[in-house]
Fold this sequence. Notes:
Blueprint: H1 33-43, E1 67-68, E2 71-72, H2 73-80, H3 87-93, H4 97-111, E3 115-118, H5 126-139, H6 142-156, E4 159-165, E5 187-193, E6 198-201, H7 204-208, E7 220-223, E8 226-229, E9 233-236, H8 256-280, E10 282-287, H9 290-295, H10 297-309, E11 325-330, H11 336-351, H12 355-358, H13 371-409, E12 418-421, H14 429-448, H15 454-463
Antiparallel strand pairs: 1-2, 3-12, 4-5, 4-9, 6-7, 7-8, 10-11
Helix pairs in contact: 4-6, 4-8, 4-13, 5-13, 8-11
Amino acid sequence: MFTRKPPKPADTPQEVRGTSFSTQDNNRYGMTAPQRLAAIADHFPRPVAQGMAMDSGLPSFKSDGQTMGGAPDSQFRWYMGQGWIGYQTAAIMSQHWLIDRCCSMPARDAVRVGYDVTVDEDHPDADAILTAFSKWDKKYGIDSAMREYIHMGRVYGIRVAIFRVESTDPEYYSKPFNPDGVTPGSYRGISQVDPIWMVPELTSAALSDPGNRHFYSPEYYVIGSVRYHRSHLCVYIPHPVPDTIKPGYQYGGKSVPQMIYERVYSAERTANEGPQLAMTKRSVIMKTDAVEFWANLTASIQRLFDWSTNRDNYGVLVTDKESEDIVQLDTSLADLDAVIMTQYQLVASISEVPATKLLMTSPKGFNATGEADQENYRIMLESVQTCDLDPLLEKHHLLVWLSDIKPKLGISEDVETEVSWRPLDSPTASEWAAIALQKAQAAQALAGIGAVDGQDVREQLRRDKQSDFFGLVDDDLVDGPAEQQAPAQYGNPQA
């Protein structure tokens, strides 16, 4: 009844299939180590500038047929699979809810609390200038532009913001940025471009001199039919790559989808296996007489069918006490939730977003508060604000000043602006009160030793934007009764 399949000839090659996480040396393409090195060079070619010849390929790797670059061949090939996935692939992956959160959440949190623009308070038009900056920032939708800048930069690994300026010069964008070329009313705000629509262009100096400040950095970006000098743009690269592989990344960086897609897939697969394991965790073994079973196969199959029909908790199963024995085995699911959460925590770790925030869960464990995760997240957001958003805001405010504020207010001299980001964690009322008390105690101690006086403390309160007395007018108490005037010594009300 059963036939044995004839074995394959001995000379038939056996294909070894690897998994997504396998490090086996699966040489299914018949390539030797040197050949694979050549393939790497083809994957990451060196750019060639017009009128300049360059050697192609990567620097030579040490290879003995078993190792590549000094690393075992199987491991090296696994790392080779971590290369650039392409802009379209990154965009498709960003549709997944978890990848989208990893890309969008830091962008929203970095700009959520906002910022303050400051100028020299001694400037006679300081208040009017600050009001104008606030008005124009809202008009140009700068908050939305910053969110998109960080969000899409994490999706693609690079984001380019263009500062739109109307000019009568047809070569305005191809020349380096010159503030003198910004005329009143010429600024039109910020537009952003996906990297798939632009072509980086490098000069000979950026390719030949490793000591060049802009070595292996595009001098121009061709977007549509316009050639933009980099000084007209802001380029955000969240995770840069070494010079050697920059051409393979189109002079961008690693995208968040590329960094986490394997972990996301593992997390989702593990979570999907949970319900299946819950439904199939119970295995039932029926011991019977095997000789009789095969001798009466039709009746035996019917017997199994009848048994499976009534195998739930509401069914009744009758067995032969002499020839049959039923054994039930249960698979423990006690640690299944920990296994699932571990995979999601790996995703959170790679994306630099706390798992409690990414998954909308509360901290777990003995005396767990999540303060360490929040502190690391806050440091990351502050780095994004300082290193990536500040240059964007400074360039935007310069153009707003030259195009809109300076001409309309009739100010002849230029002013320097500074952006200060508000605290990411908003203190509660009790925390604000505690902070104010500590500041008052510190001021009292300094006044007690004669380091400062009441007027110094008053001036500090007037300048402190976190104080309830911010903007206090100097002559608020001058015309009042003598008993209401400020004391000469902060720490001595009777002085």
